Amino acid sequence: MNEKLYNGIVLPGEWPPRNMDPAAYVPMPVPYLEQPPEVIPIDIGRQLFVDDFLIAGTTLERAFHQARKHEDNPVLRPETALEREMPGIFPAAVPKDGGVWWDPRDELFKMWYEAGWCGALAYATSPDGIHWQRPELDINPPTNQVVKDLVGDSGAVVLDLDTDNPAERYKMFHRECNQAIGRSNGPGNSMVSADGIHWSEPVKSGSVGDRSTMFYNPFRKKWVYSIRGGGQGIGRARKCREHADFLQGAKWTDEEEVFWCGADPLDTPDPEIGDAAQLYNLNAVGYESIMLGLFEIHLGPNNRVCEAGGFPKITELKTAFSRDGFHWHRPDRHTFIPATRRAGDWDRGYVQPVGGICLVMDDELWFYYSGFAGDPANTLDKFGFYGGVYSQGSTGIARLRRDGFASMNAGAAPGTLTTRPIMFSGKHLFVNVAATQGCLTVEVLDEQSQPIPGFTAADCLPISKDSTKEPVRWHGNDSLVDLAGRPVRFRFNLERGQLYAFWVSGSE
Hints:
Elements: H1 31-34, E1 40-41, E2 47-48, E3 55-58, E4 61-64, E5 68-69, H2 81-84, E6 93-103, E7 108-115, E8 120-126, E9 145-159, E10 170-176, E11 186-193, E12 203-208, E13 213-217, E14 222-228, E15 237-243, H3 246-249, E16 258-262, E17 278-287, E18 290-300, H4 303-309, E19 314-322, E20 349-353, E21 359-361, E22 364-372, H5 387-390, E23 393-401, E24 406-410, E25 415-419, E26 422-423, E27 428-434, E28 439-445, E29 466-471, E30 489-495, E31 497-505
Parallel strand pairs: 1-26, 6-9
Antiparallel strand pairs: 2-31, 3-25, 4-24, 5-23, 6-7, 7-8, 8-9, 9-10, 10-11, 11-12, 13-14, 14-15, 15-16, 17-18, 18-19, 20-22, 21-22, 22-23, 24-31, 25-30, 27-29, 27-31, 28-30
C-alpha cells in the first residue's frame, strides 16, 4: 500500500524515487504542487505560505524574507588551545553541521563543533544560546573534547526526542578526515550516545564524500543520510539514503544510494567570480508542517584560486521547503544567510548550516551558522589543506521572525486568500500576522464555498496586531469544534498587513 503522509500526500510505491537525472542542471520538479490532495489535513504544525500547496486563490502578494545577522557575532570563536594551538590544525570553532540544540531535559543549549579545522570534536553548553561555556570532560582532560580519537571533517549530531531507548538519545554521523582518505570518498561513522559525550563504537557506513551529513524526518520517522556525490557535469550535488533505524541504515552499498538534487541555473553565479553554482551541502529539519532545508550553494572560486589568494571559498545559504521529504521547492533564490566577501570579516566566506538548522526562541527563529575569515599566511596543515581557505572559523547567529520565511501581503487595497479544502480535529484557530496599521478577518466556508453562519467575516472580531500567535474569534463562537472532521475552507481578508501562518489547535 502506498504511504499516505500527515498532509494528505500519497507517496508512490518506489520511495525514494529513482527518476532524478544526475546530468540535468534544472530546477527540481515538485509533484505535490502539481497535484495536491483534494482535502489537506492540517493537524500537524503551523501552516506556512511558502508555496501554493494550501492556496486555492489569492489577491495577496507573497514576499520572502531573509535572516538578520546577530549584532554581537560571532558567539563562538577559536580561543582555547584545542581550537587554536594543535600542531598542523588551523584555528576554528565551527559546528560545520555538528549540531545546536535546546535540551529540555537539562534545560541547556548544547553545541557540538570542530575545535580546529579537521580537529577534535568538542562540546559546549549555554544558558541563553549566546554565551557559551566549554565544560571539562573526562575524554581528554582538561579539554571539552568528545570521542578522543575521532578527527573531524564533517558530521552531524541530532538530539533524538522520539527514541524510546535512552542509550540512543543522541545520534551522530561523522565523516573522518585523514591522510589515507584525503579528498576521496571513505566510510562514515554512525554512533549513538546517552549523554552526547560518551559515544558507542562506530558503525561504518557506505562510502561518502566530505560534507556529507544526516538529519531526521519526524513526519515519516526516517533517518536521512545526505551524501555528497557529484552529478554528471553539474559538479557537487547530493545523493540520499533513508532508513527507519539509524544504525542499520548506515550499512548501505553504493547501489542503494539514490541521486537526489543539485544546484541549477536559478542559483545565479557570483558576478565577480562567474563560476556555475554547485550544491555543496544539504541539511534539513522538521519545522512545523514542513521539512525546512538549507542549501549550501558553492559559488567559487575553485580551491586553487582560494589557496593562491589566501581567502575562503564563497558558500552561502538558501532556503528550501519540502512537504514529502524528498522533492525540494525553492521559490526564493535570494541568499538567506550570505557571506560578506570582505577581507577581515569573520564570515567572509565558507558559510555553512548546523545540524538542527534553527531553534525556536519565543517569537524568533535563531539560525546558527559557521563562517571563515581565512588567513593570508596561507600555510599548509597536516592534511595538505591551505590555511587561507580553512583558517579562522567561527560561529554566529542569524535571526528571523517565527514562521517568517514568507508572508502574504496586502496594502491599502484589501485582499483575500482562500485555502483549498482542509480538515482538522482541533478547536481554536490561530494566526501569525502583522497588521498594526491594518486589519485581518477570517471566515469559514463550507464545501460549496459559502460562508458558514456564525463564522462569516462580519462575525469575526478584527485583528489589528503584530503577533506570532494570535487567536481568531467570532461573535459568540470561540471554538471550531462543531466544524472538526469535515472539509472546510478558510478565507483570510487582509488590509495593510502581512499574514505568515495559520493553524488549528486543540488547546487555547
